[in-house]
């Protein structure tokens, strides 16, 4: 009983010591028994806990996909909700193994913040949401408006750039927590709420008292490719995350999903055989199980499934695939070949 | 202080130092070496870890980012600022905003605190009870909660900007804040400011002269009236000479917001009100105990000497009460300044909030936190030094 | 006001009504001068305009604890339905719903420990043992994992237990550190003295937020590669560092109040430094320092609310998050009033206790 108590205490205090330095994240994760993933504290559709504490969302599902790739179990994962401010220190320091928190890929973050970005899981852009009553039809009419924006985001910078480029002035209300920004906007403190279009859709669907009172303006003022990130200095772990994301995209391209994946296991197509691990090599190269891709598809789904169940037209967010359609369907989602 | 001159049993005869642990002098040196060594070791451990981590994760270091363009907007600023300016200037904006809310907060809290402190000693039972209720409620509730409350009060309970309350012509109150008419740009205001500065210097010089004359001849110069006359009269003269401009810059609802006039943002209102109310409760207690500490006999003695009640208060009671009041008052001023960092929680762009944004945008957490701490230490030390100087001055007056 | 009537064989008579009785009291306390009379009338008018609407809002037109947000939004006074709906969330945060008897028991244990420790008869060595047992029980209750309790991660902790854990454990750990710092500050070893003074003044010169920031964003970089400490523990460490500096100053005040003769007498008995401190100086100094220590604890208790800034949801944080529920947005008066009353009850009773203690100790000193 006593040793159990000690173990519980030790686990709860989580003073996790990795076995050595450098390329050890995979070993640490395996030893620990779960992946520690940093997610958004409350953005419907991307990272959001329900009242029972179960996490859902697109970003969350990519965390689960990585857990499946490593453990073949989507529940061997723990989520750390992070604010915009906490996310970089958390991944830099090793508090989380993986940051999947609607984070935009930028040069600064790739270099001086010290991150490596996996393939983009959601191509987004920054937009504006206003109350319908204002009668605003275009972002170009926003001169002099009060804008609510979350601090420490690319959004905050794009906003300044956009108004500068269009010779307009604005009055920023900059708040650190996402909840507070939304609250300030819905209370009427600001005329405009700005963040990624997907985030606006999520906020409108999940937070607005009356969703139909608010309209997202047509202008998209920036490119916001959102991607999971790992820290510099561990190429193997980076590869695992990268090729787990690729699995979901490639699977959709092959037409493989969680329901029909078993039918493909005995496929004659050598591409698919390699992909699903029927003919070995790919998994081992990553240091994972040969059938990791099969497991990921079986337990986490392909990209289309992940998209549809979290943010797609059937969800409150009602987002179209758009840029996030496969390249074969006019979108940008494209996986490097499994070879 | 380096050597201990006290001798105890077991110590060698004075004069010689033996290298034995039973010698207190030697033991003290060993202890100090051990303690300093431990601190240096821990420090070295942390610093080397940090450097290692920074290098391994190729995180940028150094303060060169201060020269780079900030490219984020700031809601309110005393100096000109636009996203084109550097991180350095953005930080300066934050420091000035912190100083602004602290200075105004300290002034208001002192006035309100003193009134309430005096009210607690009032012979009027109702007033004394009311004042002590205020103190007991306010100081036992976290300041952050009070801040949230004031902020919610403005942003949730006032009408939207289009239905702004208009209690007086040109005054508008809405959830976007308070707008009042401002002064139109005119050289007269500069002239008046100069005149006021001249009056301050003049009053100071006059009071020195008056004191000297009183010491020499015993004649009392009506300093209060003369000083007040100077301070009001000179700017008024400048105003009249300047042609008495009356044009006001009225706020007008144009587009999304009011334009023109002077604006008080809800964030500033909330942080100022929160800090003032919270600190005034503590200052009230300081003032009350300061007044209670002066013996009643002092007043009676002054009366017996024939001093009128004004000079009794000014020359006898106040100097002694201040001696008790100033040290705890200083720490209240410091607390208010430090509590102004709570502004972060409601979005007032103080130095913590701007440093926070900066460290998010640049990823340089160590530099950001160091800048916050360095600035606060400077402010705290300056207030301490000033108040210590003041404390010494009034301590001299007493004896 | 002591009107003693000399007994000269006559029966006691009531004092005249212009000296005692309600009328005299009114005249002496409310209308003794003309300006006091005016003030009294003004204050009464003010109270008459402010208090009745508040009472009406609070009780008369208020909605009960089972009201829905639609009913509340239809108009009327305070919406206690908000508290009814969110009570458990505000008190226990995101702790698993079915297990919330555990944080409740935690609160009870904490209150029992605090109340018990207030009684001077219990100031015995075994009190430390009681605390150790109590805190262990708290740890078991919150973490679980033994005795058939489901394990609960500390990221799910919130509400009042988190506030109590941060403040009480912070205090318990900071106390010995504060004693060492206070002794170090008065030490005649210059290096030790300089270190302690630097530490104390450094911490007292910066706002708590900057320490929490350091714990939240900087501290992870201080550790060796691959070692990480969880967020709650980091915040707890920041609180301990903060509390130690302030408590050290309170204890230093106690040390300074000890007459020099006590030190000299101890030296004269040939006691070593630690014997002198532990047996002679500290017991007296700490007794003197208790009232300021309680005051430090009160402000420390209030300051735990700052953890909301680094994303932990203590009592205030939970009260605020409860407000972000779209269907209950805008009931901030009810939420802050409720949370404020809880804080107030804790802080007010502690400050009353500290005043009582101060009086008691002063009495024994005068003896």
Automatic annotation (TrEMBL), chain A:
Any single biological process term in GO: amino acid transport
Cleaved signal peptide residues: 1-23
Keyword Transport: yes
Keyword terms: Signal, Transport
Domain of life: Bacteria
One Pfam family, short name: SBP_bac_3
Cross-referenced InterPro entries: Bact_solute-bind_prot3, SBP_3_CS, Solute-binding_3/MltF_N
Residue ranges occupied by any Solute-binding protein family 3/N-terminal domain in the UniProt entry: 34-264
Membership in a protein family: Belongs to the bacterial solute-binding protein 3 family.
Listed name of the protein: Amino acid ABC transporter substrate-binding protein
Species this chain originates from: Azospirillum doebereinerae
Automatic annotation (TrEMBL), chain B:
Membrane topology: Multi-pass membrane protein
UniProt superkingdom: Bacteria
Originating organism: Azospirillum doebereinerae
Family the UniProt entry places it in: Belongs to the binding-protein-dependent transport system permease family. HisMQ subfamily.
Coiled-coil segments on the chain, per record: none
Protein name: Amino acid ABC transporter permease
Compartment annotation: Cell inner membrane; Cell membrane
Principal location listed in the UniProt entry: membrane
GO MF annotations in UniProt: transmembrane transporter activity
Keyword field: Amino-acid transport, Cell membrane, Membrane, Transmembrane, Transmembrane helix, Transport
Annotated GO biological process: amino acid transport
Any Pfam family matching the protein: BPD_transp_1
Transmembrane intervals: 28-47, 101-121, 188-207, 228-248, 268-287, 369-390
Domain ABC transmembrane type-1: 95-387
One cellular component (GO) term of this entry: ATP-binding cassette (ABC) transporter complex
Automatic annotation (TrEMBL), chain C:
ABC transmembrane type-1 domain residues: 156-354
Membrane disposition: Multi-pass membrane protein
Family: Belongs to the binding-protein-dependent transport system permease family. HisMQ subfamily.
Residues that span the membrane, as ranges: 34-60, 101-119, 126-150, 162-184, 205-223, 235-255, 280-300, 335-353
CDD domains: TM_PBP2
Compartments, as annotated in UniProt: Cell inner membrane; Cell membrane
Top-level taxon: Bacteria
Protein's recorded name: Amino acid ABC transporter permease
Annotated GO MF terms: transmembrane transporter activity
